[in-house]
Design brief:
The complex is a heterodimer of chains A (116) and B (114). Chain A is mostly beta strands and 116 residues long. Chain A has strands spanning 5-7, 10-14, 19-24, 31-37, 43-50, 55-58, 61-66, 71-76, 85-92, 105-106, 110-115. Helices cover 0% and strands 56% of the residues of chain B. The N and C termini of chain B lie far apart (30 Å). The chains are: A mainly beta (116), B mainly beta (114). Chain A binds chain B through residues 2, 30-31, 33, 35, 40-45, 48, 50, 88, 90, 92, 94-95, 99-109, and chain B through 2, 4, 30-31, 33, 41-45, 48-50, 55-56, 58, 88, 90, 92, 94, 96-108, 110.
Amino acid sequence: SQQGEEDPQALSIQEGENATMNCSYKTSINNLQWYRQNSGRGLVHLILIRSNEREKHSGRLRVTLDTSKKSSSLLITASRAADTASYFCATDPGFYSGGGADGLTFGKGTHLIIQP
Amino acid sequence: DTEVTQTPKHLVMGMTNKKSLKCEQHMGHRAMYWYKQKAKKPPELMFVYSYEKLSINESVPSRFSPECPNSSLLNLHLHALQPEDSALYLCASSQGGYGGSPLHFGNGTRLTVT
């Protein structure tokens, strides 16, 4: 079943601009994660934000989490052509489903194209 | 390159064939996962193994049979598949446990059922 819904579904910007993607989810979570997937390849973990955190940074990435609105955003600053990929948010029920390894539920994803 | 290795990279099989997908990790992770991904769709969870025991089966048809021979290996046995089972099959591993941890994905096996 789908948990996260990304917005927008597709985004095309010029190199150097900032890209913002949003994710909404429905149930309580332990943490929320963002992944990148280049065409036909496996997913690469970008950042994990726990339910008690509001903002997290990693290099050019900034993630926010608003548990009251059940939403998260991913900001990529100073975009590069190599950032062209699909980006997925994924929710981890963790503690709320009994803990242990529960597996992540992925949203529909945002396809980001960076124009050189 | 990823630390999770999946073989084969591509597989074409008929509906009466039996084949297996293999996944290996040497990061000492105790949780391993199978996901299925159709084109332009998100990955969908199929199975979760935690400490070599099947902990989650997301109502997957019995023509898919997972196996975890040891903490480093994960297999997915395929039998009597349908054309709609054609997809990218992704294996992942994580440290598991409470608190959550990132998943490390392999590059997948591209399966075509004819």
